[in-house]
Fold:
Amino acid sequence: MSAIAFPTRLAITEIKLYLREPLAAFFAVVLPLALLLILGATIPDFREPADDLGGVRPVDTHLPGMMILLSVLTVAFSILPATLVVYRERGVLRRMSTTPVKPISVLSVQLVINAAASIVATALMLVSGHLVLEIPYPPMFLAFVGVFLLGSVTMFGIGLALAAAAPNSRVVQSAGAGIMFPLLFLGGMWLPRALMPDWLRVVSDYSPAGAFGQALTDVLSNQAPSLLHLGVMTAWAAAGILAATRWFRWE
Structure:
């Protein structure tokens, strides 16, 4: 019984610690939701069919896809790796190795909590976008769930590799931002992929965020995601998880 209770108690403690950091919840959950509603409500062009997006409204496909991408990348490259590196830096994981609560439990709980934050953010965006902006729910819901899960695993895997390689909290924060913002650009956050020059779209196709962002947009547009993009995400996920497994240090 005690072996089962320990992870539960640890999870409750970690959730309380997570909620005591309002910036984490703000950037992962509140900011993407607020941007979706504000941009969708205040920019008329987002509510008009766009020729470069196949005649669909940006608010129905591109905008929610980019806000989901923003939420997942914020968790994967800012919140998750920073927490793990701080724990390692302060000796939390080393001290836990002498107790029945093993460091792997901390890693597992952190993954679950941060994954839950991304899921909550995505669910809130889908529901709020539908109620406020009349954004339709994903017509290919199972495909949407599959793309979301694969993309999240991909980004979390790379984020864990970052946490494994970073020597301290200052480095991981700077490196996380240095990775996240270029990935957001390649994902189509500021320049939709349809407007990218051909060479840049190819680079985007083979980037994890470009593949994830386009796959999200595809399923929100009632189109099957490209096998290329699914394969790219799978390859990046495997590479990130392999690197994190080989490099990760508990102390």
